[in-house]
Amino acid sequence: MNESKKCKESFVVKTSIVLPPDTNAYGTLFGGKLMAYIDDVAGISAMRHARKNVVTASTDSVDFLHPIYQGNSVCLEAFVTYTGRSSMEIFVKVIAEDLLSGDRNICAMSFLTMVAIDENGKPTPVPSVIPETEEEKSLYDSAKERADIRKNRRKDSEYRAKKYGINQSI
Predict the structure, then answer these.
(1) What beta strand segments (E) does the chain contain?
(2) φ, ψ dihedrals at 24, nearest 5°
(3) What is the CB neighbour count within 10 angstroms for residue 138?
(4) Which residues contact 23 (CB under 8 A, 6 or more apart)?
């Protein structure tokens, strides 16, 4: 596939207000709820880039940098930073805003890998990505390093799955 697309063509924004059912006993957004939001916007971004169905191959660590309180808005921004043959790395940035004061904080960042699949559920080629802004270029230039870390982490996970298996107790 020779076609290329700019990072901004896959840009997605999702904004929600944090309501009581979304929070834990401390009045902050459940981490799992935020992780679902992250996976959601990453998937939309990847589908927007590939114009194909996608599956999540991996989620890098999600570091919770600042709490997101009940009554805050939570805004997620995502875009494709790098592509392989059928895989795409998506960067997601999470911003919370106190809607009464206007204070905003970066609350989390994550990288996900999505794989485009065809009608038979098999990986299928995706367009390459063209970074334009300094942020996009920086993320693009550092993507290979993150991919190597993911590859090593996956090998370790596969090793442990074989070693501990489904019939082993820890």
Answers:
(1) 4-6, 12-17, 53-59, 63-64, 73-83, 87-97, 104-117, 128-130
(2) -95, -170
(3) 12
(4) 29, 30, 70
pLDDT digits (tens, 9 = 90+) for 97-156: 999 999 999 999 999 999 999 999 999 999 999 999 999 999 999 999 999 999 999 999
pLDDT number for residue 63: 87
Q: 129 with 7: CB under 8 angstroms?
A: yes
Instruction: Check: CB of residue 124 under 8 Å from CB of residue 54.
Output: no
**Closest among 94, 127, 131, 91 to 111, alpha carbons compared:** 91
Name beta bridge partners: 59.
Answer: 112
Q: How far apart are CA 158 and CA 46, in angstroms?
A: 25
